[in-house]
Amino acid sequence: MTQLTFNYCPVDGYQFQEGEAKCSFCGLDRNAIKEILTNSTACEEQKKAPWRKLLWIKQDYPDNYVDKTFLGELQENVNVRTYDYWTVVKESTVISQHISSIMIFIAVFIYLYLEILSGPILITSGTVFTIIGYIFWDKSISKTDPSYEYKRWRTAKGFALFFAALLGLSPILKTLTRTISDDTIWALTVILFLANMLFHDYGSDNRTNIKFPGSLSTNAAIFASVLLASRFPPHTSNSLVSGLMSFAVEWFALFPIFRRYIKSLSSKFNIALTFLLFILAAILFMNISKAIVIIYILMITFITFVCPFWLIWIQKYKKEIHGPWDEARPKIQRR
Amino acid sequence: MPYNIAMVSDFFYPNMGGVESHLYQLSQRLIQRGHKVIIITHSYKDRTGVRYLTNGLKVYYVPHVVIYSEATLPTVYGFFPIFRNIVIREEINIVHGHQAFSSMCQEAILHARTMGMKACFTDHSLVGFADASSILMNKTSKFTLSDIDHVICVSHTSKENTVLRASLNPQMVSVIPNAIVASQFKPDPGAVDKNFITIVVASRMVYRKGIDLLVAIIPRICQTNPRVRFIIGGDGPKKIDLEQMREKYLLHDRVELLGPVRHHEIRNILTKGQIFLNTSLTEAFCMGILEAACCGLLVVSTKVGGVPEVLPRHMIIFASPEEDDLVNAVMRAIEMIVLEQVSPIKFHDEIKEMYSWVNVAERTEKVYNKIWELKTPPLLERLRLYYGCGIWAGKIFCIVMAVDYLLWRFLEWIFPEENIEIAPPFPYQKYIKICKMAEEENNNKNDNDSNNNSNNNDNDNDNNINNLDGFDDIDDIDDIDGIDDIDDIDNYNNSEEKGEEDNEYYKSKTRS
């Protein structure tokens, strides 16, 4: 792949189309351009000593001489990975899972708002699922980190403290953004959920630490739920607010960890979870708006099946060039 | 034929670096070859207006906003009125820009082409293709170099890089290396401490210079060889890493960190060592290794960019940019020094033959001759060239250049060329004659009142001639770097008497 592909005819500047071999103005052969460019200066070169890529010797060639070896060290597309369609489809589940979970959260809010769902039920079911999830996580972490044992008590204490604080703060959270008009709240919520979606940490398999973009996305979602909590009617009880907030924390901070755990466990579980979330989101929205359900299904289909195809198709336009001018990557042994 | 050349770059003295000395040395040699050369750069703090350097080299320090590491804010049109004024005043016919990172140089090339002047460009560094900043950089290079008469690169690798970056015809690109003033880098065998093997490092302490590698290999080398010591000159953000390494491995007595080093002190540091170590990760030419070899040091360097082209194999040991390989290369170099397999002192005379600024000026002059023959394309043809830069970029560049053309017509109308006063050229020939006369007088005096033997006298003569030719320019440069103002330059101003006026005139022009 050392041949430099010329995009323009050097005689008249005609731009070659994709796959075109001859210039349509002057009929110049595209493959011959390189020879023409190099040979025009390198006539009678038989008698001369061969040109060398050195600066310290005086050579019998003009300064603008172009040797045959010119761009010889050019490498194209050395780091390019070729993707398999079904692998990419499987990998795309992380995105559809996250979108589904945002949809489910919004549906839960709407049910609370319409007073179909009550606060205590949400709190109870949320707690039960969190404890189940925690047991899973506990098992996985104690395998890798034996020093974890003594931290359990601390985690439980943290959980209790956090939940009590949330209960205590819920009257404040309920009225915190009450005075802001509905339109602003809806618009801001949309923006914040979009931010949550964009900055979510899809890539890492890390289940213990949270990186910066991950924390940004979590904060955006929590803030969005604070905004939403202020929209509950004044006569409703505070348990709605504390229910929604605790659900938000469980759903946006803890659930992604669980999803990563499932993904690392097996791809079958992962696909099953994706389906479960997808069906749940669709069913929950069925009562709210059929149009949203259709858009949602189309979007998930697009992300799962069309985007991987798109990615693989667009790969052929990839043109990476490497050569001796690149900044070298130093190799250092870490001690 | 003699040309009137304007060198344009953001980087010039009092700033320090390879481009700066390249500009100065090249301009000096071109003046000696009978051309008129001026340098246009941006103002450095209070250094604003016109200054004269050795041999009447005139420097315009144009007031401008500096944004990042001495590069000016790209305004596209902001520089045009004053640039036009300068080139008309100085009757410039060739504009020569230096360094792609300098937006002033890029703008000058565009405006010069709009005004129908010849333009050429020298690229001093390598730019990759991967990250966002280099993509932006390459797009601007492509824009400005779309319509250029000739490009000069400092090494063959740099040429390949530039051709790819700016989609140029490789025949339009010449390779003219940097050079060295060999008399400033004479070896000094007496300065070496025979009890040690001294390894010298002199570079800016930045990531691109591979300081991480240096930090990794110094403890290993010190551990295996107790006679080795390091002298490290240079300043920058990575210096702290070296200091930490020294603390951690308790190498205070063996690793000497000198901090910032001024250019004229480099030779005295180099001559203390036997081995020079360069760990750069990217380098278009690498002046450092050339200076070191010229001072009689065996060079160990990473094999990156244009480095393999610079020195013959017996002066340099290459290593890949990996810790183990570098350690091996340094060990081999130490062994060669200990067993006296190489005699680096002889390097100086060889280098003197290989690289000289006179040669560079000759070759640059050939480029000027070549572009002088070229026809300047009409506006429509130029727009076509810009249009080819990209689907969207091409259209934007066309608009930019069309506006540039309109701005030029407007400037022609509002500040007609007739109203711009032509600056009298510096009478270089006359100046040289006066200098020679003064010298002879001096020599006569020396002959009369000294009892020195003839040998000494000869030496004196040599020095004087060197001075005249500007070979010992290093003194001037130091002055420029210094805080006190330049005695030499003030003298020129006084002796020619038009310097002051010139300055005043220029200032009033810029104010109005």
TrEMBL record, chain A:
<feature type="transmembrane region" description="Helical">
    <location>
        <begin position="294"/>
        <end position="314"/>
    </location>
</feature>
<feature type="transmembrane region" description="Helical">
    <location>
        <begin position="94"/>
        <end position="114"/>
    </location>
</feature>
<dbReference type="Pfam" id="PF06432">
    <property type="entry name" value="GPI2"/>
</dbReference>
<comment type="similarity">
    <text>Belongs to the PIGC family.</text>
</comment>
<dbReference type="GO" id="GO:0000506">
    <property type="term" value="C:glycosylphosphatidylinositol-N-acetylglucosaminyltransferase (GPI-GnT) complex"/>
</dbReference>
<protein>
    <recommendedName>
        <fullName>Phosphatidylinositol N-acetylglucosaminyltransferase</fullName>
    </recommendedName>
</protein>
<keyword id="KW-0472">Membrane</keyword>
<keyword id="KW-1133">Transmembrane helix</keyword>
<feature type="transmembrane region" description="Helical">
    <location>
        <begin position="158"/>
        <end position="173"/>
    </location>
</feature>
<feature type="transmembrane region" description="Helical">
    <location>
        <begin position="185"/>
        <end position="202"/>
    </location>
</feature>
<keyword id="KW-0812">Transmembrane</keyword>
<keyword id="KW-0337">GPI-anchor biosynthesis</keyword>
<feature type="transmembrane region" description="Helical">
    <location>
        <begin position="270"/>
        <end position="288"/>
    </location>
</feature>
<dbReference type="InterPro" id="IPR009450">
    <property type="entry name" value="Plno_GlcNAc_GPI2"/>
</dbReference>
<feature type="transmembrane region" description="Helical">
    <location>
        <begin position="120"/>
        <end position="137"/>
    </location>
</feature>
<feature type="transmembrane region" description="Helical">
    <location>
        <begin position="239"/>
        <end position="258"/>
    </location>
</feature>
<feature type="transmembrane region" description="Helical">
    <location>
        <begin position="214"/>
        <end position="233"/>
    </location>
</feature>
<dbReference type="GO" id="GO:0006506">
    <property type="term" value="P:GPI anchor biosynthetic process"/>
</dbReference>
<comment type="pathway">
    <text>Glycolipid biosynthesis; glycosylphosphatidylinositol-anchor biosynthesis.</text>
</comment>
From TrEMBL, chain B:
<feature type="region of interest" description="Disordered">
    <location>
        <begin position="484"/>
        <end position="512"/>
    </location>
</feature>
<dbReference type="Pfam" id="PF00534">
    <property type="entry name" value="Glycos_transf_1"/>
</dbReference>
<keyword id="KW-0337">GPI-anchor biosynthesis</keyword>
<dbReference type="InterPro" id="IPR013234">
    <property type="entry name" value="PIGA_GPI_anchor_biosynthesis"/>
</dbReference>
<dbReference type="InterPro" id="IPR039507">
    <property type="entry name" value="PIG-A/GPI3"/>
</dbReference>
<feature type="domain" description="Glycosyl transferase family 1">
    <location>
        <begin position="191"/>
        <end position="335"/>
    </location>
</feature>
<comment type="pathway">
    <text>Glycolipid biosynthesis; glycosylphosphatidylinositol-anchor biosynthesis.</text>
</comment>
<feature type="region of interest" description="Disordered">
    <location>
        <begin position="442"/>
        <end position="467"/>
    </location>
</feature>
<dbReference type="InterPro" id="IPR001296">
    <property type="entry name" value="Glyco_trans_1"/>
</dbReference>
<keyword id="KW-0328">Glycosyltransferase</keyword>
<dbReference type="Pfam" id="PF08288">
    <property type="entry name" value="PIGA"/>
</dbReference>
<dbReference type="GO" id="GO:0000506">
    <property type="term" value="C:glycosylphosphatidylinositol-N-acetylglucosaminyltransferase (GPI-GnT) complex"/>
</dbReference>
<comment type="function">
    <text>Catalytic subunit in the complex catalyzing the transfer of N-acetylglucosamine from UDP-N-acetylglucosamine to phosphatidylinositol, the first step of GPI biosynthesis.</text>
</comment>
<dbReference type="GO" id="GO:0006506">
    <property type="term" value="P:GPI anchor biosynthetic process"/>
</dbReference>
<dbReference type="GO" id="GO:0017176">
    <property type="term" value="F:phosphatidylinositol N-acetylglucosaminyltransferase activity"/>
</dbReference>
<feature type="domain" description="PIGA GPI anchor biosynthesis">
    <location>
        <begin position="42"/>
        <end position="131"/>
    </location>
</feature>
<protein>
    <recommendedName>
        <fullName>Phosphatidylinositol N-acetylglucosaminyltransferase GPI3 subunit</fullName>
        <ecNumber>2.4.1.198</ecNumber>
    </recommendedName>
</protein>
<keyword id="KW-0808">Transferase</keyword>
<feature type="compositionally biased region" description="Low complexity">
    <location>
        <begin position="449"/>
        <end position="467"/>
    </location>
</feature>
